[in-house]
Amino acid sequence: MRPFRARRTAALGTAALAATMLLTACSSGGTASKDAADGKVTLTIDLFGTFGFKETGLYDEYMKAHPNITIKQSDTQDEAQYWQALQTKLAGGGGVADIQGLEVGRVASVVQKQADKFTDLKTVGIGDVNDGLVGWKGAAIKTADGKVLGAGTDVGPEAICYRTDLFKAAGLPTDRTELAAKWSTWQGYLELGKQYAAKAQPGNAWTDSAAGMFTAEVGQQKVRYSDEGGKPVYETSPAVKTAWEDSTKLVADGLSAKLPQWTPEWNKAFSTGKFATLSCPAWMIGYIKGQAGDASAGKWDIAAGPGKTGNWGGSYLAIPRTAKHPKEAAELIKWLTAKEQQVKLFTKQGSFPSSTAAQAEIKSVQDPYFNNAPIGQIFSESAAAMPAQVLGTDDGVIGKAFTDALGEVERTNTAPATAWQHALDNVKKANGN
């Protein structure tokens, strides 16, 4: 941990010195690094979902070591809503935070289309912040001319989270090794889902939504929405077509709770038992704990998912060009993404580290909330088997179009073929075609 900066003394010796300090503060303009003459700074950080910094006490730890810093976080659970709001702020040139979160599906767009909107981290002294991460993580946020536009936080290796109490009630096994064998493929997952549905209580579905299954399944492939040359291939991609077919089969077999993800209804269902399984990237662990609460501890467990691999999500921290406190923001980013903090985030929250050194330290971690599931082992094996995904500039837009279309299939009984065409049309519309 870096030593904290001492507060600037409040009592100034002479009026001349006071005037000098005031002039210096006022003349720094938009890049001012101090809120007031006493050196106190309020850093704003705007995120989506649950990064875990606040929940695991990292902000408090940092502020204790840096008493001149106050951290204020705002967050939006739905990343699509967050991204839309961020675009509006960036276009208007105001309202951005000192630090903005970026989801991995957006970084190609940022790097290729919005590099001028974000600070090159080399200019604020942390150009090496991604050096210790898995190779693809740092490469994805670097421009062709070498600018580093963000610092990598977590990655999203996949598994399946499930409710042991609901499994028992339906006569299914609860042992995570046995379950991993039964649903070693997505077809096995669907088949076990039909067995569950035959004996489950009314109102208890196999999984939350077709969107969740689709995102997890398509996230297991190297090529999804764009090829390695950057050409969009989502209309013909085998990964997309197979995940679509499996997800619409899930709906046809009555295995979905039809809950749109990130909605209040979905959040409530974590504690009320509306679904028994969930496609579960590592960062979902913290989300489940937050929504299900202490009363659900021990009811949830985790097993390796179909294919025992996949990556869903993972994020970056970036500094907009118009941030008020770029220097202090950079120092906080470097600390939050350091190995020590990545280990803490996984141990307490489940956010799987992108730091290779941190990954080496967490392989034996178990989680008491999830029946002491060996989360370090499960997610480490998933991450190790996952190929580096090809990231396209419109991955976020394309993914949302398909998951929205699956919502049509679930909730309005739209025919899969019709919904598929709606997804294609919405991608083109989003791109101005």
UniProtKB/TrEMBL annotation:
Chain segments annotated as transmembrane: none
Signal sequence coordinates: 1-25
InterPro entries recorded: Bact_solute-bd_prot1 (IPR050490), SBP (IPR006059)
PROSITE patterns: PROKAR_LIPOPROTEIN
Keywords: Signal
Entry keyword Glycosyltransferase: no
Gene3D superfamilies named in the record: Periplasmic binding protein-like II
Protein name per the record: Extracellular solute-binding protein
High-level lineage: Bacteria, Bacillati, Actinomycetota, Actinomycetes, Kitasatosporales
